[in-house]
Amino acid sequence: MEQQLQSLRGMVDLLPLATVQWQHLESRAREHFRRAWVGEIRTPLLEPTELFARGIGEATDVVGKEMYSFNDRGDRSCTLRPEGTAGVVRAVIQQGLLSQGPQKLWYSGPMFRYERPQAGRQRQFHQIGLEYLGFADPRSDAEAIALAWDLLEDLGLRGLSLQLNSLGNGEDRLRYRTALVAWLEQRVDQLDPDSQQRLLSNPLRILDSKNPATQALLVDAPSLGASLSTESRQRFEAVQAALGQLAIPYELNPRLVRGLDYYSHTAFEITSAELGAQATVCGGGRYDGLVQQLGGPDTPAIGWAIGMERLALLMASGSELKGAAPDVYLVSKGELAEPFALAVARQLRGAGLAVELDLSRAAFAKQLKRANRSSAPWAVLIGDGEAQSQQVLLKDLREGEEERLDRESLLRRLQGSALGG
Ligand code: ATP
Ligand code: MG
Question: How far is the CA of 60 from the centre of ligand 2 (A)?
C-alpha cells in the first residue's frame, strides 16, 4: 500500500461541520462592515519579501523568524503573507486609491507564520481585518475599535476585555526608548535571553515579553505614558473620551506594545479570559508612518485584525449553532426513477431550494431512514411508477403525511412552505 500523505504541520483542514460555523462568523462580519460602509479588498497571498521586510520591520519575530519565503523560478524572493496590513497598504498605494479620498477597507483570508503550533496558534491561520487609511481624528480610532467590539459581542463572546495604550508619536517613542534602554542596561543580567537580544534590536518589545521574571522586573521600569508629549497625551484622552461615550469598557495597559514595528499612538488588544495562553482574539492600532514607509503619501491610518481560529474556539465553548438541514431529501429507486429524480432535484435547486439527492441506489427504506436523519422537513419519493406518470410523492417528515403531486404543484407546495417558514 502507498504511504498516506499528511498535511504540513500547523496547516489545518476545516471540515463541513466547522465551515458552517466559519460561514456564520464571516457573514456576521460582512454584515457589520456593510452597516459601517466599509469596502472589501482582496490582495494576493504572495507578495515580494521586501514588502514585509520594509513594512513590518526586520527586527520583529514575524519577519525575523516566522516568514514562509522562497525564491520563485525568476529568482525573486517571495513571501506568503504573514499578516494583511502591508499588502493592503501596498495595493492602496499602487492603485492610487488615496487620491480618491480616505479609505475604509476590510479583508479576510489565510495568513502564514512559521510558529510552534498549539491550540489557537497555527502556521496557516485566518484573519478578518479592518484598515482605515487617511483618518487622523481620534473618533476614527473609536469607530474602528467599536466595530471590532460590536462584532465580537454580536457573535456571543463573553468575558472580553479591551486593553488600551498609546505609543505616542515617533519622537515620544524615541525618547522613551532611550530611557528604557538606559534603565534596562543596568539590569541586563536579570533579563531572559530573548529580551537581552531585543535590548539591541527592538527594546520596546521587551515590554510584552511573556517571561514572568522579566515581567516582574518591568514593574519598576520607566513608563511609556510619562514619555508622551502633551499633544500625544491629549490625543489619547480624546480616544478614551470617545470610547466612554460609546460605553465601551477599556483597561489602560501601559505594557501593551504589539508585535509589529509600525504602530504609533493608539495600540489595543481584545482578550478573552476563556482563551488561556493565546488570549488575544483581536489586535490593532494606529500606524501613521507605514504608508509613507512603503512609498506612498504621508497618511495617518488605524486598523485591527481578528484571529478567526481563536474566534471559532470561543464560539464553540459559548453559543450553539443550529445544525443545518436541506429543505428536501430526495429518495429514488428504479431505472426510470433515478434519472427522473436527477432532473427534479435540478429543477427544485433552480427555484432556490436546498435539495440533497440520495445517490446510493439503496433500498427505499434505507434511503428514507437517511432522509429522517438529515433533519429535512420534506422527503420527495420517486419510484418507477411515479417517473412513468411524471409525478412524485411528497412526504412531510414531521407529520408523516404523503401527497402525490406533479412537478408544478410540487414546486408551488415547497416554495409556499419555505416562505411560510
Ligand atoms: P500573538 O501574541 O498571539 O502571537 P500577534 O501579536 O503575533 O499575536 P497579530 O499579528 O496582532 O498577532 O495578529 C492579530 C491576531 O491574529 C492575533 O490576536 C491572533 O488572534 C491571531 N493570530 C496571530 N498569529 C496567529 C497564529 N499563528 N495562529 C492563529 N491565530 C493567530
Ligand atoms: Mg505572534
Answer: 10
Predicted local confidence at residue 182, as pLDDT: 93
| CA–CA distance, 396 with 344 (Å, rounded to integer) | 17
Q: Which domain does 354 fall in, by range? A: 328-418
What does the pLDDT average to over 89-113? Answer: 98
* Burial (Cβ within 10 Å: 0-12, 13-18, ≥19) of residue 170: exposed
Ligand 2 mean position to 115 CA, how many Å?
Answer: 8
Verify whether ligand 1 is closer than 6 Å to residue 280 (CB atom). yes
Going by DSSP bridges, is the β-strand pair 39-40/103-112 parallel, antiparallel, or unpaired? parallel
3-state secondary structure of 37: coil
Q: Which atom of ligand 1 is nearest to the CA of 129?
A: 14
How much helix, strand and coil, in percent to the nearest 5, is found in the chain? 45, 20, 35
Q: Mean of the pLDDT values across residues 114-141?
A: 97
Q: Which residues pair with 133 in a beta bridge?
A: 103, 301
Same domain, 296 and 164: yes
**Number of the ligand closest to the Cα of 126:** 1
Are both 21 and 150 inside the same structural domain? yes
From ligand 1's centre to the CA of 84, what distance in Å? 12
| 56 and 88 fall within a common domain | yes
**261-284 pLDDT, tens per residue?**
678 999 999 999 888 777 899 999
Point out the ligand 1 atom lying closest to the alpha carbon of residue 113.
Answer: 27
User: 61: domain CATH number?
Assistant: 3.30.930.10
CATH of the domain at 334: 3.40.50.800
Calculate how far, in angstroms, residue 305's C-alpha sits from the geometric centre of ligand 1. 8
Could you tell me if the CB of 261 is within 6 A of ligand 1? Answer: no
Q: Which ligand is nearest to the CA of 261?
A: 1
Same domain for 305 and 165: yes
Q: Is the pLDDT of residue 319 over 50?
A: no
How many structural domains is the chain composed of?
2
Q: Residue 275: its pLDDT value, please?
A: 80
